[in-house]
Specification:
By secondary structure, this protein is α/β, with parallel strands linked by helices. It is about 40% helix and about 10% strand. The chain has a 5-stranded parallel β-sheet, with helices on both faces.
């Protein structure tokens, strides 16, 4: 699980848009769900585009998939898009808000076209839905492939 910029401010940042759940609460719920599903989950947040690119690159060969909320980088980062393509892992993109009901510049995602799916608009629940989706995707693949 990779959290993008400003998500460390959840719970206090624009609560009318992003809700009142903190990043710690979201992470706690994701860890519980991962444990229940019997999967290992690594969680990191960064405000740095380069660090997120590095984390995606390091995921190859170590993890079966990537769950990401690229936050503002969704709409600007060709670097994140290219990193995702380069590693060849299945990626699910998640967002707390429905990016298609917001400002015009937020309606385009550089990540969506290279992700297996996108979940947005369900608040903190978007994360759980995304994790379940990526787990299902990985489990549905033949055992000799990722």
């Amino acid at each position: 699980m990779l959290h993008g910029p400003n998500l460390n401010l959840l719970g206090t940042r624009e609560t009318s848009v992003y809700g009142t759940a903190t990043l710690s609460e979201i992470d706690r719920d994701l860890k519980r769900l991962a444990e229940k599903e019997g999967v290992k989950l690594m969680i990191q947040q960064s405000n740095s585009e380069g660090e997120l690119v590095d984390r995606i690159q390091k995921a190859a060969g170590r993890y079966h998939a990537v769950l990401i909320n690229p936050a503002a980088y969704t709409h600007t980062s060709i670097a994140l898009r290219d990193a995702i393509v380069s590693v060849g892992l299945p990626v699910v993109e998640v967002h707390l808000s429905n990016i298609y009901r917001r400002e015009a510049f937020r309606r385009h995602s550089y990540i969506a076209e290279v992700a297996i799916g996108q979940i947005c608009g369900f608040g903190a629940c978007s994360y759980s839905l995304g994790l379940l989706a990526v787990i299902h995707h990985v489990r549905a693949k033949p055992k000799n492939k990722r």
